[in-house]
Design brief:
Number of strands: 24
CATH class of one domain: Alpha Beta
Shape: globular
Distance between the termini: 27 Å
CATH topology of one domain: TIM Barrel
Largest sheet: 8 strands, antiparallel
Radius of gyration: 24 Å
Length: 490
């Protein structure tokens, strides 16, 4: 009787412990600040299955090293609205005894993402200790023939298993991260891996490099080898990881890399394949030694997405959730995690990305950088937005000259944009998803100059956009801080 009563008690208490979430103070605080205009609505968000836009991707990396638990965050990926997600194949986790593969954990991630309407793309990276090869970030690329042959057998097995669900394969992660030059070793690995993939799936898309930042010298040495061996046709994308404290500072390097790659083969496109921002001061990994917060992280993520959109390239944000490395709980997650790898709450950066992918959906494209004038000394980036018929529908703009700050305040400026004619524009703030009424715009609406007086601007994207193009829900829609008032889960 006592055992039965205890079982009932535990069963009754378990769901509340599993489902409870902390509420987010930073999300609540963001709702309390305003650019000083009338609130008229909020962005109505759609799921990944509804949007089906592969332009936007989120990082579900590190499952191969068990730094996160896919089942803990699975539904949040589809809710985010992204069309794709990056996962790592994990040779060392799949083949722990030579010649025997266990794909159970990888099946969970691949099938789970597909169930959420998200296309997985897979990074084939890192070695396997059973063959004497390193398996962690910055691992040296193996060059001995027995290990390369074992790698090819593994790649063949992975592609054969998932070719009906995974169509894009990335070869390695940050091969230029180590101090020693691995360009020749990487070129050989890239060729052999891509050929192994295409032998199983001739239509597979190959994403090469996975560069740390945008190094032209390393890229050139690898591309030279591919060209000499007539293998440039093996790759469809060059991926790179633009980790800069000010995300706008990456743009010149991205443009230089694009020109450089095109000089070898104009068919090859760029892919911003991994980039993110901590939410606290970190002592390791990218963007360390800067006092980040959940406010600056949200601004950073929104600006990275805005820059990639303006550049016309695909974009993947690292990462969906905090990863529990052996020496730290890394804070890059759009979702905050605890030490049990459970979701604590959605950070403002989660909402920022969700709103950006809903605003910049498949029916919206970047249409260049129109001339504009503004009465501020600060540098502003501005990109025109158009629909699929090339009709201008608005502009997106932000302060681009500094690292995103914690400040939650807008400047009010007079903004004049050439060649813009909007019929019924509204102002959209993508981090919180709020939509504001604008003061009456002045100027010629028939292809001349359109002027906005008292226009709010800060160091995160804002959109002046036609009301009819915004996924709209009423201003009365409730936007509480995520989670509950429970202080402690354990």
């Amino acid at each position: 009787m006592k055992k039965t009563f205890l079982a009932i008690l535990l069963g009754a208490s378990l769901p509340s412990a599993v489902l409870a979430q902390h509420w987010s103070l930073t999300w609540k605080q963001l709702q309390s600040v305003s650019p000083g205009l009338e609130l008229v609505g909020r962005i109505e968000t759609r799921s990944s299955r509804e949007l089906a836009n592969p332009r936007w991707s989120v990082g579900c990396e590190c499952l191969d090293r068990e730094y996160a638990d896919f089942s803990a965050y699975k539904p949040y990926v589809g809710e985010l609205g992204v069309g794709a997600a990056r996962i790592q194949s994990g040779w060392a986790r799949c083949e722990q005894k030579k010649g025997r593969y266990d794909f159970g954990w990888l099946d969970e991630a691949v099938d789970g993402l597909c169930e959420e309407g998200v296309r997985p793309w897979m990074c084939l990276a890192y070695g396997n200790p059973v063959y004497g090869a390193q398996k962690s970030l910055g691992s040296r690329i193996f060059t001995d023939e027995p290990t390369l042959q074992a790698w090819e057998r593994y790649v063949t097995a992975v592609v054969a298993r998932y070719k009906d669900r995974v169509h894009e394969w990335e070869v390695w992660n940050e091969p230029n991260l180590r101090g020693a030059d691995q360009s020749a070793a990487y070129a050989e690995l890239l060729i052999r891996t891509a050929e192994a993939v295409r032998k199983v799936d001739p239509e597979a898309v190959i994403i090469g490099f996975g560069l740390s930042r945008m190094p032209v010298d390393f890229t050139g040495r690898v591309l030279d080898i591919l060209r000499e061996r007539n293998k440039l046709g093996l790759i469809d994308y060059v991926s790179f990881h633009p980790y800069h404290e000010n995300p706008d500072d990456a743009t010149p390097g991205i443009e230089a890399l694009a020109r450089f790659v095109a000089s070898y083969d104009p068919r090859i496109r760029l892919f911003s394949g991994e980039s993110g921002c901590p939410s606290v001061l970190e002592w390791a990994h990218a963007l360390r030694y800067h006092e980040w917060s959940e406010y600056s992280q949200a601004k950073w993520v929104a600006r990275r997405l805005a820059n990639d959109f303006a550049l016309g390239i695909r974009s993947s944000i690292f990462a969906i959730i905090d990863n529990q490395y052996p020496n730290m709980l890394q804070s890059f997650g759009l979702l905050r995690a605890n030490l049990l790898k459970q979701v604590v709450y959605k950070r403002p950066s989660y909402h920022a990305m969700q709103h950006m992918v809903n605003l910049l959906h498949a029916g919206v494209k970047a249409a260049g950088h129109p001339a504009f004038s503004v009465n501020t000394a600060r540098e502003i980036s501005l990109v025109k937005l158009a629909d699929t018929a090339d009709t201008p529908i608005g502009v997106m703009f932000w302060y681009a000259d500094r690292i995103p700050s914690d400040e939650l305040a807008w400047d009010r400026v007079e903004l004049s944009v050439e060649g813009l004619s909007l019929k019924d524009p509204v102002l959209v703030e993508p981090i919180t998803g709020r939509i504001f009424e604008l003061p009456q715009p002045h100027g010629n609406r028939d292809g001349g100059r359109m002027k906005f007086t008292g226009c709010p601007v800060w160091d995160a994207p804002m959109l002046l956009i036609e009301r009819s193009t915004v996924p709209f829900q009423g201003a009365a829609a409730e936007r509480r801080a995520a989670g509950s008032s429970v202080d402690m889960l354990y």
